Amino acid sequence: MPSLYDRDGVALSKLQKLRFFPLALTGGHGSYVVDETGRDLLDLSASWGAVSLGHSHPALIEAVSGALQNQAGASVLSATNEAAVDLAERLLDLTPGIGDRKVWLGHSGSDANETVARAVTAATGRQRIITFTGAYHGGTAGSMAVSGHSVQTHAEKSDGLISLHYPDPYRPVDGDTTGASVLETLKHRFETDAPPQDVAAVFIEPIQSDGGLIVPPPGFLKQLCDLCKNHGILTVSDEVKVGVGRTGRFTCADHEGFVPDFITMGKGLGGGLPISAAIGPAEIMDFATSFSMQTLHGNPICAAAGKAVLDTIHTENLLENAAKTGGYLIQSLRQLMQSHELIGDVRGRGLTIGVELVETRDSKEPAARAAAKIVYRAFELGLIHYYVGMNSNVLELTPPLNLSAQEVDEAISILSKAIQDTVAGRVPDDVLMGFEGW
Ligand SMILES: Cc1ncc(COP(=O)(O)O)c(C=O)c1O
Fold it and tell me: What's the whole-number mean pLDDT along residues 401-418?
């Protein structure tokens, strides 16, 4: 009898796989998933941050089954529905913004970012967009076109895309730890080959996530936004991974003291169901009809899930939990640094955390192979997490927002053992065969 994982290998296309170890799931509860052998594994990825309330949360079960028992159509294209309108109203209340704003509902972070990229250029008549090296805004053509991640070198870029370094305090380019040189570069581009009146928007990840969980230097994003706003350039905060409470505040931009024109959200908004949102100025969001639509956009079942996530964040104080338990997780990981030379840096906000691995702390040489072995060994020992980064050497932790302190202790103990086993050479090279990761 072939295993579920083997059947997946035969039946499902590789085009959509990003695999780190042979995980086949049959269920889940809270912060744990259950694999095909019946084993419980502590999930500190939460499916890349999507399972924001943990698996099978009662509020989500109730909302989704309720919406299905009396199904109000399937979309907002040609009829509205209450769940979609409620969700949009809630998002407008929960997010910062100036003037009249509107909400666009989609399925994924990719479609939300693609919609904004297309709308800002078409509505303003300005053709260029500013992005960052290492940025991941999605996997559709239009979202890849404004991204800068090494995994997407095959993708066609948007015309005249302006790409800036994302200032990384751990790996400063030419010693610039504040991002001042990035701002100088942009000003110089504005004066030379990239006149600001040609630029529609800047896409910002307030923590650069798939690029390596990079927390920008204090004040940098605010200065960047001020500079752009002075030139009428719209600011877009891509909060697909870090929004919806994951950093301990509802939006991550809030930590950085800037008010973006657009906010995009996805992943955790649906708690595991596909729903995304773009929130932005009404004059752009209403500049045309039928401009960016898919049959199931504004789906009432997914919108009901989104509402349940927002309600539960409020009723269960999950912003506070993300800040507190995230703080405890960061502190525990920093303690691990004392026994593991391989850990070069631990950073993050709330429950958005990166652990950068290096060959030695002096050289900061990225330890990519060790990262791949550690996530593999952790899987064997009962912990799910993955690695990210332009150098494939940053462990990413984006657990459910209701993670407990005991679960942090369990994760730390497994991770410590996985690092020990890797360093001691107890994880053979051949286990990684077929698991390329990023
Ligand atoms: C910051 C950011 N934006 C957009 C996306 C794309 O989201 P999705 O894969 O849900 O389309 C991701 C996915 O990792 C992301 O991290």
Answer: 98
Q: What is the residue-averaged pLDDT of the chain?
A: 97
Q: Is 5 a catalytic residue?
A: no
Answer yes or no: CATH 3.40.640.10 is held by domain 71-315.
yes
The pTM assigned to this predicted structure is 0.98
Residue to substitute in 267, 386, 397 for testing ligand 1 pocket (most ligand atoms within 8 angstroms of CB):
267
Domain range annotation of the chain: 4-56+317-432, 71-315
State if residue 307 touches ligand 1 by the CB under 6 angstroms criterion: no
Q: Which fold has domain 4-56+317-432?
A: Aspartate Aminotransferase, domain 1 (3.90.1150)
Do domains 4-56+317-432 and 71-315 share one topology? The answer is no
The span from the CA of 44 to the CA of 30, in Å, is: 11
Nearby residues of 13 by Cβ (< 8 Å), 6 or more positions away: none
Atom of ligand 1 nearest to the CA of 239: 1
As to burial, measured by CB atoms within 10 angstroms (0-12 exposed, 13-18 middle, 19+ buried), residue 86 is: middle
